[in-house]
């Protein structure tokens, strides 16, 4: 009962943040600010979606003792860790490539990178 | 010999994680354990040269892994939660003041630079764009620069983060 409630709360938080990420991609002015919306909110939202799966798997494991639920939980944790690392690294690579190919940040008040790497 | 043992151990732990819940010996079945041991030895034979390429064994210390876990669950998760509320606020209102600043964390190892760059990318309105490979300076795109910070030649780490000094934690983990 309590577990079902926690599960639903985690799912709701995850979906809300993923939705905000999508809205951010549509609203922000340039590639860098769009990457902000895309990497942070989607990683955070997906961590909560993963936590919901882990809670579900753990509760069923302690309820039934069936090994397949622990497999589900552990694999979800590994997928979330891999996602967090690759998401950050991918965002870094896209941002660096964009800046080197001449995409300057829109509405910027300061750009220290353009001084050393024009 | 040391690279071989470390690679085999690491591969075996990953195999155990992926096959947890397969049987009755604690959580694993006998055939899975035997197959895991065999495959980790094969993996170690092939890839020991890549895995320990720089002959740097300080990450073999379990205390560092414990610190890394504490860092991820504690300061990092709090900063990340705050980051998301902050970015959500900016998505809804559209109030942004972007720019690229330079920070000088003073880290020396590649692993430390990697951890800090990823931490910065996943926390409050900041995104690592470029790392200077000689001085290890970071160029960080911020979505909302506080007034005054754009005048400084190198920004302070506390202008970028909100509560915790990440470089101090990273130095404890990776250096």
TrEMBL record, chain A:
Record field: transmembrane: 6-29, 41-63, 69-95
Keywords: Membrane, Transmembrane, Transmembrane helix
Native source species: hydrocarbon metagenome
UniProt name for this protein: Membrane bound hydrogenase, mbhc subunit
Molecular-function GO term, any one: sodium:proton antiporter activity
Stored PANTHER family: ANTIPORTER SUBUNIT MNHG2-RELATED (PTHR34703:SF1)
Automatic annotation (TrEMBL), chain B:
Coiled coil: none
Main location per the UniProt record: membrane
Transmembrane segments: 33-51
GO CC, alphabetical: plasma membrane
The keyword Cell membrane is annotated on this UniProt entry: yes
InterPro entries xref list: Cation_antiport_E
Membrane topology type: Multi-pass membrane protein
Localization (cell): Cell membrane
Keywords noted in UniProt: Cell membrane, Membrane, Transmembrane, Transmembrane helix
Single GO MF descriptor: monoatomic cation transmembrane transporter activity
Descriptive protein name: Na(+) h(+) antiporter subunit e
Species for this entry: hydrocarbon metagenome
